[in-house]
């Protein structure tokens, strides 16, 4: 099935996603330095994130988990020229490649990369920091519950929050699986259920070149 899922993604990309040298360069730079390209979003997933930003006319984006900035560039391209992205990456080796890819892209939007633990960086933002219109969380899964609560402090009514990798090939259904990443996602689901600050939320399973996984999506009340 994996071969068919990947072939279907390739078909979608060939028909609906125009070739983009900037994104291709970022992906190639990632692989050239021995970093696993599969950690980045798939191109059709990047386009979905871009479309969500465009539909909601967002100007300010927060991203937790930059990796090498492939997803960051998808997010930035959807913004107006005076748009702003704050992207946070915990690993120095990833951040170096990310900054290279951001610089190479030369996009007009402001992309600020901060290196360190997302929880510490978010807690260090000054009081009155302008909230974000769109938030993409794609970092360590065990911290998803804490990330969600912290991000709500930097959101406003109508902010869209997307959390990646929340299906994990159905491993969250295995009661004997107590990996921190799996427990973190389970806690995230419980937290999102009837959360007083969320207007609505859901999760979607996906299959494709990234295997069997999916997104959770929420709108802030």
Structure description:
The protein has 221 residues and is α/β, with parallel strands linked by helices. Helix 2 packs antiparallel against helix 5 and helix 3 runs parallel beside helix 4. The protein has a single domain, classed as Rossmann fold (3-Layer(aba) Sandwich). It is built from eight helices and seven strands, in the order H-H-H-E-H-E-H-E-H-E-H-E-H-E-E. The protein starts with a helix and ends with a strand. The radius of gyration is 17 Å and the shape is globular. A seven-stranded mixed beta sheet has the order 3-2-1-4-5-7-6, sandwiched between helices.
Shape: globular
Structural class: alpha/beta
Mean pLDDT: 95
Strand runs, count? 7
CATH topology heading: Rossmann fold
Query: Can you summarize the main beta sheet?
Result: 7 strands, mixed
**Beta-strand residue fraction:** 15-25%
Number of helices: 8
Tally of distinct domains: 1
**Low-confidence parts:** none
- Please give the order of strands in the largest beta sheet: 3-2-1-4-5-7-6
The CATH superfamily is: Vaccinia Virus protein VP39
Helicity, as a percent range: 40-55%
The CATH C-level name is Alpha Beta
CATH architectural grouping: 3-Layer(aba) Sandwich
Report the radius of gyration as a whole number of Å: 17 Å
Determine the N-to-C terminus distance.
39 Å
Helix-strand pattern: HHHEHEHEHEHEHEE
What would a concise description of this structure say?
This protein has a single domain (2-220), classed as Vaccinia Virus protein VP39 (Rossmann fold, 3-Layer(aba) Sandwich), CATH 3.40.50.150.
């Amino acid at each position: 099935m994996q071969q068919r899922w990947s072939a279907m993604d390739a078909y979608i990309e060939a028909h609906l996603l125009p070739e983009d040298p900037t994104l291709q360069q970022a992906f190639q730079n990632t692989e050239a330095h021995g970093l696993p390209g599969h950690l980045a979003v798939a191109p059709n997933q990047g386009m979905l994130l871009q479309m969500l930003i465009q539909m909601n006319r967002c100007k300010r984006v927060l991203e937790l988990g930059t990796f090498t900035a492939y997803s960051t560039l998808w997010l930035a391209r959807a913004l107006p020229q005076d748009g702003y992205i704050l992207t946070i990456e915990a690993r120095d080796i990833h951040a170096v490649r990310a900054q290279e890819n951001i610089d190479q892209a030369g996009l007009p939007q402001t992309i600020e990369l901060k290196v360190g633990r997302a929880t510490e960086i978010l807690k260090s933002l000054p009081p009155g920091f302008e909230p974000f219109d769109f938030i993409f969380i794609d970092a360590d899964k065990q911290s998803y519950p804490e990330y969600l609560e912290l991000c709500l402090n930097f959101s406003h009514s109508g902010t869209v929050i997307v959390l990646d990798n929340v299906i994990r090939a159905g491993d969250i259904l295995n009661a004997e699986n107590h990996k921190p990443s799996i427990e973190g996602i389970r806690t995230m689901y419980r937290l999102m259920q009837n959360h007083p600050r969320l207007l609505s939320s859901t999760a979607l399973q996906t299959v494709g070149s990234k295997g069997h996984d999916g997104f959770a999506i929420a709108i802030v009340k």
